[in-house]
Amino acid sequence: MGGGINMKRRVLLLLKRSMLDGYVSRERMQMCEPPFASLMVSHPKAVGNLSDRHRVHQHTVEVCKDVLKRKSNVVWDSLMRDELRGCPIRDVDLVVTIGGDGTLLQASHCLDSSIPVVGVNSDPTRASEVEENLEEFDATRSTGYLCAANADNFEQVLDEILDGSRKPLVLNRILTRIDGMNFTYPSLNDVLLSHPNPAAVSRCSFSIRKAGNDEPTTSVVHSRSSGLRICSAAGSTAAMASAGGEIMDFMSPDLQYMIREPIRPHPLFRDHLRGWIRPDEVLNVQWGCRQGVLHFDGSHVFQQVKFGSVIEFSSNAPPLKIFTNFSKNVQM
């Protein structure tokens, strides 16, 4: 990180609430008692797992805070991720997210290309625990694919960032334009365009165009399906991979698109239901349903569209600086 030798680095600690906190808060808002008493009888191991996940997450938060308190060259503040409210993050030198990939993705929406981010996986999945409980419940915790640290190595990772020996990667993100207007947040992983009802048919027509040129360079494809997904290189290991897409080199400047579950496509269109958006290209989509919704990097950020809306996808968004372990995690 830049700055003079004696300059204090400004760090924002962005925290998620544990799943247990989320359940309890939701029950309180609905003015009813949490159902844990009955669940302790019917599913004691699952509830115990939930409580342990809360404990592990809180332990990681305290470890990270203690590390920051010991750093004389750091001034820091903390914020719950639901307190961001989509506001831009400014006036800091580094954002540290504590949670999982979802927390880092939420932070990324509020960051331009000037402030780097590093993720701390607060509750890593334990393979032995998953196997042990396979017949009773899903004991998967946090994948933390985008995260560079955990409670055990956070101080080492932070020191490497502060002394400049660990460099951030600069990752491409997805720019979405809706009827000629840039959407507020760039997407680090992916964007899903679909009907708001998952059982309904999604209709759209799309083509590839050169940036700044209204003439398509490919045939216009008419599609009926369960939606259209666009991903960046970083997001190619997520939902796109699960749907059979290609895992990309994480430094690739390209985007990948795929029609989900196409319904009897015309023979002329079958070879164009998935493909690539190069850095000088735009995927131009005209929506063909009365209702539609765009989801950005998961379910929390979304935007409604209507019949006739024109949505454009490109890699022309501000990139993200991120400290990560992709070189250790990615299997090509």
From TrEMBL:
Gene3D superfamilies from the UniProt entry: Probable inorganic polyphosphate/atp-NAD kinase, domain 1, Probable inorganic polyphosphate/atp-NAD kinase, domain 2
Molecular functions per Gene Ontology: NAD+ kinase activity
Q: Name one Pfam family in it.
A: NAD_kinase
- Taxonomically, the superkingdom here is Eukaryota
Which keywords accompany this UniProt record?
Kinase, NAD, NADP, Transferase
**GO biological process: what's one of them?**
NAD+ metabolic process
Under InterPro entries, the record lists: ATP-NAD_kinase_N, ATP-NAD_kinase_PpnK-typ_C, NAD/diacylglycerol_kinase_sf, NADK
tRNA processing as a keyword? no
What family, per the record?
Belongs to the NAD kinase family.
Q: Which PANTHER family match?
A: NAD KINASE, NADH KINASE
Q: What is this protein called?
A: NADH kinase
